Amino acid sequence: MPISHRPAIGPTMLILGIDPGSRITGYGVLDVSTSTPRYVASGCIRIQADSLAQKLAQIYAGVSELIAVHRPTEFAIEQVFMAKNADSALKLGQARGTAIVCAANHGLPVSEYGPRQIKQAVTGSGSADKAQVQHMVTAVLGLSATPQADAADALAIALTHAHARLGLLQAGSFGGHKSRKKGGSWRAFKP
Fold it and tell me: How far is CA 155 from CA 79, 84, 121, 152, in A?
């Protein structure tokens, strides 16, 4: 798992975003010390185990390592959505629960966002596809390369949480939050 280190420059507020999965769990770390989120790191925890118990152990260990290295102050994760079948939904829920327990055990506040809400916050459309999410994450964060899909999703989750922290989301729709103005997007964060 690629890990990048950040320099110690005063107090930082970091969000760790997690896109849970039983084979690949994406992560994204953003510095939200200012009103413009700044990219810190992203990547994937690639699960190598065969048994479910070992897969969950690897997810826990990977998230724990990310927390130890980056020392986030907040944790954001995607809510469960309907998967292709019940078995897939169950495995996704277990991977998600494992990441949440890890964050809670490290004393991090946990925030959850629905898939449509994340797409709406990042692209301006709740029905955006993965390529659109990748494109907007790359543009908003000024990245030199497009992150892998799971890492981009995790960065989108962290961006959604950053949006919520600034009060640009409110209770009401998309699983608990909505944009204050119709069609609002992350374009507002461009310097």
Answer: 15, 24, 12, 5
pLDDT at 2 over 50: no
Catalytic residue among 31, 74, 78, 112: 78
Residue 158 CA to residue 43 CA, distance in Å, equals 13
pLDDT class of 72 with cuts at 50, 70, 90:
very high
From residue 89, alpha-carbon distances to 68, 76, 81, 113, 131 in Å are: 29, 19, 8, 17, 23
d(CA 37, CA 40): 9
Q: Is 74 marked active-site?
A: no
pLDDT in tens, 75-126: 999 997 765 788 888 888 999 999 999 999 999 999 999 999 999 999 988 8
DSSP result, 115-184: HHHHHHHHHS-TT--HHHHHHHHHHHHT-SSPPPHHHHHHHHHHHHHHHHHTT-EETTSTTT-EESSTT-
Active site annotation includes 87? no
**Does residue 19 carry a catalytic annotation?**
yes
Distance between CA atoms of residues 133 and 129, nearest Å: 6
